[in-house]
Q: What sequence folds into this?
């Protein structure tokens, strides 16, 4: 049985006050015991988030990382630094990193390996643009992004990842893939993973990321191949994020 994971991605938003508010609220509620929760906060808030969530089950994660362990790389942050600041997970290959910062499949793979080397859990993000969907290339694009990473990993490494499917056309737009659309892509990803190993496919957690909100989370999470969510804007509102976490239980 795959344990659901709800991961909030704050992107370049939030404040220390919001970190503390989330910490207080999550300390006062009982989360479903069969659900894991993580918040991917901006780099400057990692240590504060670790302290704020110290009395809760919420894991702290980062939003990206360098593909190198150290060096003259002004502005970059290494996997070891993230671990030292308390991160347990890290997003890799988010569509905004791919489109705004030019991270191609090779760059994504290098970052996945850097995360694995420091015992961080990579949340590999994959997804298609609206133009690619309208051209009926969704599976070719999404599965190609999966294979670009999984082809280069060994069996043990593959089992340490989480995959988040995020249709680019639904991120921050208010548009959401229908439960049927999302399920179809998740099923295709699981089928792709089965070509490596049936156990890998059966155990891999697949998250949906694309304008998941409190009012649509339950229907999305009810799909057989959707094992959680990568939540954007709604993760900045404590009541909304709590509602999504509760709906996953």
A:
């Amino acid at each position: 049985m795959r344990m659901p994971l709800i991961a909030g991605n704050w992107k370049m938003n939030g404040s220390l006050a919001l970190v503390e508010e989330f910490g207080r609220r999550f300390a006062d509620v009982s989360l479903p015991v069969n659900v894991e929760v993580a918040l991917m906060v901006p780099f400057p808030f990692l240590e504060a988030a670790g302290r704020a969530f110290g009395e809760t089950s919420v894991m702290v994660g980062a939003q990206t990382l360098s593909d190198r362990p150290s060096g003259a790389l002004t502005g970059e942050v290494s996997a070891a630094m993230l671990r030292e600041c308390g991160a347990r997970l890290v997003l890799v290959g988010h569509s905004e990193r791919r489109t705004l910062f030019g991270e191609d499949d090779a760059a994504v793979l290098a970052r996945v390996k850097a995360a694995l080397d420091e015992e961080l859990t990579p949340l590999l993000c994959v997804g298609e643009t609206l133009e690619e969907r309208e051209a009926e290339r969704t599976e070719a694009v999404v599965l190609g992004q999966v294979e670009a990473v999984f082809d280069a990993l060994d069996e043990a490494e593959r089992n340490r990842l989480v995959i988040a499917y995020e249709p680019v056309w639904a991120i921050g737009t208010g548009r959401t893939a229908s439960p049927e659309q999302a399920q179809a892509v998740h099923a295709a990803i699981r089928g792709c993973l089965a070509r490596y190993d049936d156990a890998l496919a059966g155990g891999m957690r697949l998250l949906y990321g694309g304008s998941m909100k409190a009012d649509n989370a339950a229907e999305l999470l009810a799909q057989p191949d959707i094992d959680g969510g990568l939540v954007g804007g709604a993760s900045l509102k404590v009541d909304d994020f709590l509602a999504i976490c509760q709906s996953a239980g």
